[in-house]
Amino acid sequence: MARDLPFVDAHVHLWDLDRISYPWLTPPFADDGPNGSVEPIARTYLLDDYLADARSWDVRGIVHVDAGATPEAALAETEWLQAMADARGMPNAIIAFAALDDPNLDARLAAHASHPAVRGIRHIVNWHPDPRRSYTPRDVTRDEAWARGFALLGKYGLSFDLQAYPGQFEALARLIARHPEVQVILNHTGMAVPGEWETWRAGMRALAALPNVATKISGIGFTHRPWRLAELRPYVLEAIAMFGADRALFASDFPTDKLFGSFAAHLDGYAEVTAAFSEDERRALFAGNANRLYRLGLNL
């Protein structure tokens, strides 16, 4: 049973709405965006709130991924999380925000990287022909400035958490292939859009062919709302088949995935889908791969 295994949660968000501004968690709320309405989670969510949600699991470590603070507050978020890590031992890694096409990116990466818990960067770049699904008005990953920014990550030993849509993956794979020194962790099972299974598979295959890319299995509710286990199963199994059990990792994406179901619904679902896997494979999926890829140094 997965609850008996060590769990390193590879994707967690914390926020203090009295401390830092998060525009996407600020009214007015609407249901017509790519996430649907986020009003149910638009309240402060701290480490103890996460630990209460995860209390039935043997959580050994957590990776905090940028939580969508206003861009000018990105460094303040990193400083707040580093102070928390110093005091509480969690988060064990910080994936900070920086826009890769920012002309001041070098200085921003240096500032984030000066914090010992920072392991990488995320810049959400989801673009889709359907404007209701897009997070950005155009596909910035096709810009030379963005490509130059990606190349800078290696200078600071930073990984990249990639959140994009499958239609963007083949072009992204060509860029990533030029930078084998940058570990890339694909977010949210590749953000598969209903009705675009073959596009998803083709894009995932392009990324899986690169040894420096892994996939994080979480967030299926972003595109499949509400998700059901039968719907989740083929995506999870296909993703693991393409990347292998050594380059896939489970994550709660809490509290964001709370929009789509409870902690138990998500984690028990992943456990059920992989029930026939070996114990070594499950230990890797639930903890070992996150520990290795995010360089946590935990004794599991």
Please give a structural write-up.
The chain is of the alpha/beta class and 300 residues long. The chain is 34% helix and 13% strand. The protein has nine helices and eight strands. It has helices spanning 47-53, 74-88, 105-113, 144-152, 169-177, 197-208, 229-243, 263-273, 279-293, and strands at 6-12, 58-65, 93-97, 118-122, 159-162, 184-186, 213-217, 248-250. An eight-stranded parallel sheet has the order 1-2-3-4-5-6-7-8. β6, α6 and β7 form a beta-alpha-beta unit. The two termini are 17 Å apart. The model has no long low-confidence stretch (mean pLDDT 95).
SSE arrangement:
Elements (H helix, E strand, L loop, with lengths): L5 E7 L34 H7 L4 E8 L8 H15 L4 E5 L7 H9 L4 E5 L21 H9 L6 E4 L6 H9 L6 E3 L10 H12 L4 E5 L11 H15 L4 E3 L12 H11 L5 H15 L7
Parallel strand pairs: 1-2, 2-3, 3-4, 4-5, 5-6, 6-7, 7-8
Helix pairs in contact: 5-6, 6-7
Report the structural category. Answer: alpha/beta
Series of H and E elements: EHEHEHEHEHEHEHEHH
State the low-pLDDT regions, or none.
none
- Give the mean pLDDT: 95
Give me the Rg, rounded.
Answer: 18 Å
A few lines on this structure:
This protein has 9 helices and 8 strands. The protein has 300 residues and is of the alpha/beta class.
